[in-house]
Design a protein that fits this description.
The complex is a heterodimer of chains A (370) and B (691). With 370 residues, chain A is an alpha/beta fold. In chain A, 40% of the residues lie in helices and 18% in strands. Chain B has 15 helices and 24 strands. The chains are: A alpha/beta (370), B alpha+beta (691).
């Protein structure tokens, strides 16, 4: 089963029509129209043993038109349905942002922020079990950058396959991951690496490149750019599946970075309906850990109110239920501190590549010593 | 008057300028900023008082121009009666001769030393003279004169006097009557809470009959601040009567002086003629309790005897002093004044009945405005007034502020951190104390001194407007919810129906049962408006039945019934349930149907009526209306009947002088009845249930 196995146009249209039919049927019965969808919070994600990732559970929420807000959502869904159907029929596609602007013409069905339109697109994906690619909707989200001795073939705008080595054929900014990384667009053709390292911040990504870490440690470096886009998570998953390479994640030590890791390794709450395509089970959290703050005596900042709240929420997040994570979170709460990746510079610019990363990678639990 | 007040320094020569210098803190000239406010205050208060006495609607213009250094030019002009040539010297040179000292009535000018202080201050700080133009309507030309003060002789020095026609600079028309003062002084113009602007703004709120404007220019002649507060009513404040002192408010010294100066030959007539509230019976009672013979000559009463009389004043039942010596602004005018100065969504005002504390009649008025442009995050604005004079300093130490702090504002929908103190939110609260004798904490007369009775009276008035605010907030939130529901069923739902039918290529469903299921309630919406052509206030009340069953209701609406406000059009008829409460019985409302009650009122001006309350009687709740509390309604009717009876008795008794004491007994009875006053605001039952 591949992520790119698009449903047929007819299937997509039928799935969307079912959403409209639920509303219409309710009104025929003389009750308020509804839309039923899974609860999209941490209370409704569970570990799927078969897939090895976190998926939405059985909790459903019924959005019914008894309040103005919900009624508007239903109306928007219908407008979006009509818009998608039109694109499918005319062979067009649009970005999520374009859809947001197009909604200006939808009167009472218009979106008030792009967040609203993005969320609704996700709602429809979940309800119809289609993907936004099926809806002809593209993200404008910023894909990741990759540097390292790996080779891809990407189909360019003229339809030709273009061979790119992410060490020799790219500049300092690396290879830009396109938003579509499925096999019809991107092929993973060759590699000479031992593992893939995903890095949260641009500053650290650039530091590792300047220090020649990719060659020295024989790895591909991926800059996540914060919370990684779907395509970033998907390409990591494919590198893991198709090349069998371990994925290690190197982030700041704060509650938000933990969530970045969780979205890579276990699946993100917002996209739990497609976790089996996006999440890479077995991805390893390398650091910075709460232990590291103590072990390396790293410069740190006090946790903010929001940080504390986020940590508290993570304690009851099923994705962080393992003993190791619970211990890390509790230690962080105890310290009341957080640290950035770049705090390692306390010991000099080379410390991260000469000491920290070799030590962490060589740890028996990771087993990637070089 | 001047005979009563020998000029100071008769025994000992003190330079008047020295006196001024020593006392400038309570004369209001202690800082450069405050001196300017005080000067404006003296000029404006004089103008308002003069216009009021002559029954002229005041037009007051204040102009402030910065000159070199910290010098400022102040120009103040009014359309008052002007001052006759012969009196100018007296008015502007009279120093420390408080003409109002002995008059027991409510006046503005209890503060400071009047306009003389301004002339004095100008002379002391700049050495300059104050120019006056005065025009009285009986004379054909105006008097132009420059004034200074001879500080040794304590009198005004006139110079450059001439007569000329006085022409308005803008219109070019001759001015019929008025007064213009131009003076220079060392002063500083500052913006903010304690500024000339704020003083005039506050003054305009409590003087809605006045038009006031302010222009401030910098050295270059550019306007840096401007204010214009037009009059909102043509009704001048009622003329206040002077009253005799009440025995409960008198001090020994005053009593002794009155005895000394008495012309009466007998103590009984002395007591009856010189005090208010003392009947023959009471006078005899006082004397017998003081062990004094009724025929004693007042002039011969000794100090310790006077003390006994004073003590007995407290032991005898006395009539309250008359309260017509007070001039309240009246709630409707406060509302107008507030609305003109502050843009708000809601205004509630209350004028309490006059009361007496220690022999002094006093009356409390409060106003509360909420919403609109006011800042939502800071403390509310407090507007304090004593006898229509804004109090701008010492807010914290003032009784009026303490009364505001003594209210649990959270109950009425305002944020009050820690449950006490000045509440926060987009609101302003006005408190006006009218009294023949306002007790201040100090000579500066900026903060009202503590008095439990006054505090309690203010607190009660605040609770009343607080209830109004609470009702308003509840209603706005209900109204918002109802609006959303209406938008949902009237706009969004039909679109959902249309769009889903189009997508699926199906017939559109019948939405009536869907709407009933979504709403499942009866809604009531009222709209108050203004018919400009007919000068009528309009009210439309619509009741929608969105339930699956037929409903029958009686709808009741509050309206500002009074002698001058009448109901004009009222097609549905209905009947009066109580004063200010009308009821209509509606025909049965079938599911999905609505009914509208419309009526109009005459005797109001545009904007006078912008809030009503709707009640109902019948089965099933109505969103947007409250179920009427029949018990309270009954109590209200009883009280009305009682009031009517009292009124009748009064009218009859007014012709019989001897019945005075009976009346007192009766009114005492009514006063002591400490039952809660039922008012329309409390007609709602189950208030707690839906919160």
């Amino acid at each position: 089963m591949s992520f790119s196995d698009s449903k047929s146009k007819e299937d997509v249209v039928e799935a969307l029509h079912n959403v409209a039919a639920e509303m219409h049927d309710k009104m025929l019965k003389g009750v308020a129209p509804t839309m039923t969808l899974p609860v999209r919070t941490k209370t409704n994600i569970g570990f799927d043993d078969k897939l090895g990732v976190y998926k939405y559970g059985k909790k459903k929420t019924v959005r019914d038109a008894t309040s103005l807000g919900s009624a508007r959502q239903l109306l928007r869904s219908l407008h979006v349905t009509e818009f998608i159907e039109e694109m499918i029929n005319t062979g067009k596609s649009s970005t999520l942002r374009e859809m947001y602007y197009i909604s200006e013409a939808w009167g009472n069905g218009k979106f008030h922020s792009q967040n609203e339109s993005n969320n609704l697109a996700e709602d429809l994906e979940i309800v119809t079990k289609c993907l936004r690619e099926d809806f002809k909707l593209r993200p404008e989200e910023d894909g990741a950058r990759i540097i390292g001795n790996v080779t891809f073939e990407e189909r360019n705008r003229r339809g030709d396959w273009m061979r790119i080595n992410c060490r020799d054929d790219v500049g300092d900014s690396g290879y830009g991951v396109p938003y579509n990384v499925e096999s019809e667009k991107l092929r993973l053709v060759d590699e000479d690496i031992d593992f893939v390292m995903a890095i949260e911040t641009g500053g650290m990504f650039d530091r590792l490149i300047e220090n020649g870490f990719d060659e020295e440690a024989r790895c591909a470096l991926i800059h996540l750019k914060g919370q990684p886009a779907r395509s970033t998570r998907r390409i990591m998953r494919r590198m893991s599946d198709e090349w069998g390479k371990p994925i290690v994640v190197f982030t700041d030590c704060d509650p938000w970075s933990f969530r970045i890791f969780a979205s890579i390794a276990y699946g993100a709450i917002k996209t739990a309906h497609i976790s089996e395509y996006l999440a890479t089970k077995g991805a390893i959290y390398l650091g910075i850990t709460a232990d590291d703050i103590l072990a390396y005596d790293l410069p740190s900042d006090d946790l903010s109110k929001q940080d504390t709240g986020a940590l508290e929420a993570e304690l009851s997040d099923p994705r962080f239920s393992s003993g190791w994570w619970q211990q890390q979170i509790e230690l962080m709460q105890e310290l009341g501190k957080k640290s950035e990746q770049q705090s390692l510079a306390k010991y000099g610019l080379d410390f991260v590549t000469d000491t920290y990363l070799p030590e962490k990678l060589g740890h028996p639990d990771v087993g990637l010593g070089y | 008057m001047s005979e009563e007040n020998p000029p100071p320094g008769k025994q000992k020569q003190i330079a008047i300028s020295e006196f001024f210098e020593k006392n400038k803190h309570f004369l209001g000239f202690d800082s450069l900023q405050r001196s300017l406010i005080t000067a404006v205050k003296e000029a404006v208060d004089n103008s308002l008082d003069a216009c009021e006495e002559e029954r002229i609607l005041p037009d007051i213009k204040v102009e402030i121009n910065r000159l070199k250094g910290d010098q400022i030019e102040l120009i103040s002009q009014d359309n008052g009666p002007g001052i006759p040539r012969g009196a100018i010297e007296h008015v502007f040179g009279k120093f420390l001769l408080g003409s109002r000292f002995h008059a027991i009535r409510q006046t503005r000018g209890q503060q400071g030393i009047g306009i003389t202080g301004v002339v004095m201050y100008s002379q002391l700080t700049t050495g300059g003279k104050t120019s006056v133009i005065s025009k009285v309507k009986e004379e054909s030309s105006a008097v132009y004169v420059d004034l200074g003060i001879d500080t040794r002789k304590n009198k005004a020095i006139k110079s450059g006097e001439r007569r000329d026609v006085w022409v308005d600079e803008v219109t070019g028309e001759e001015i019929a009557h008025g007064l213009k003062i131009r003076t220079e002084m060392k002063a500083k113009y500052q913006r903010g809470k304690q500024s000339v602007y704020q003083y005039l703004r506050m003054t305009s709120i409590v003087n809605p009959h006045a038009s006031i404007s302010l222009v401030v220019r910098d050295r270059e002649g550019d306007v840096i601040e401007e204010g214009h507060w037009p009059r909102t009513t043509d009704r001048l404040p009622t003329i206040v009567k002077e009253i005799k002192p009440h025995p409960h408010g008198i001090h020994l010294g005053t009593l002794q002086r009155m005895l000394r100066e008495a012309e009466e030959r007998k103590m009984t007539s002395f007591l009856r003629h010189n005090f208010s509230g003392v009947s023959m019976r009471a006078a005899r009672d006082i004397l017998s309790k003081s062990e004094l013979e009724e025929s004693r000559q007042p002039r011969r009463i000794k100090a310790e005897e006077a003390q006994r009389v004073l003590d007995c004043f407290q032991k005898v039942k006395l009539l309250n002093p008359p309260t017509d010596c007070l001039s309240p602004i009246e709630d409707l005018l406060i509302k107008k004044g507030l609305s003109k100065a502050i843009d708000s969504r809601f205004a509630s005002t209350v004028t309490r009945e006059p009361r007496v504390s220690q022999g002094n009649p006093f009356q409390i008025e409060v106003g509360l405005v909420f919403g609109g442009d006011m800042a939502a995050d800071g403390p509310i604005e407090i507007l304090r007034f004593a006898n229509r004079v804004p109090l701008m300093y010492q807010q914290g130490g003032c009784l009026l502020t303490k009364a505001i702090e003594a209210v649990d504002w959270k109950r009425y929908g305002l944020d009050q951190p820690g449950g006490k103190g000045i509440p926060k939110g987009p609101a302003a609260v006005l408190v006006h104390l009218a009294s023949t004798n306002v007790q201040f904490t100090s000579e500066a007369k900026e903060a009202v001194a503590t008095n439990e009775e006054v505090l309690e009276e203010i607190r009660r008035a605040l609770l009343e407007v607080g209830r109004g605010l609470k009702g308003h907030l509840k209603k706005s939130s209900q109204r918002k919810k109802a609006r959303e529901k209406f938008e949902l069923i009237n706009i969004i739902l039909p679109e959902i129906s249309k769009k889903s039918s189009e997508i699926l290529d199906r017939e559109e469903p019948n939405l009536a049962p869907v709407i009933t299921q979504i709403m499942n309630a009866v809604f009531c919406e009222e709209e108050l408006g203004w018919d400009n052509g007919r000068k009528l206030a309009t009210c439309d009340i619509t009741v929608f039945n969105y339930t699956a069953r037929a409903r029958a209701y009686t709808i009741l609406a509050k309206w500002p019934e009074s002698e001058s406000v009448r109901m004009e059009d009222n097609l549905l008829g209905g009947r009066k349930e109580a004063r200010g409460l009308w009821a209509w019985r509606l025909d049965t409302l079938d599911p999905g149907s609505s009914a509208t009650i419309s009526f109009t009122l005459s005797g109001l001006s545009k904007g006078d009526w912008n809030d009503t309350e709707i009640f109902f009687r019948g089965n099933g709740d109505i969103i947007g209306a409250n179920r009427i509390d029949e018990k309270l309604l009954e109590e209200m009717r009883n009280r009305e009947a009682l009031d009517a009876a009292v009124e009748e008795v009064r009218t009859r008794e007014d012709t019989v002088v001897a019945s005075l004491s009976e009346r007192a007994d009766y009114s005492d009875e009514v006063d002591s009845e400490e039952s809660p006053e039922p008012d329309l605001g409390s007609l709602v039952i189950d208030q707690g249930a839906d919160e």
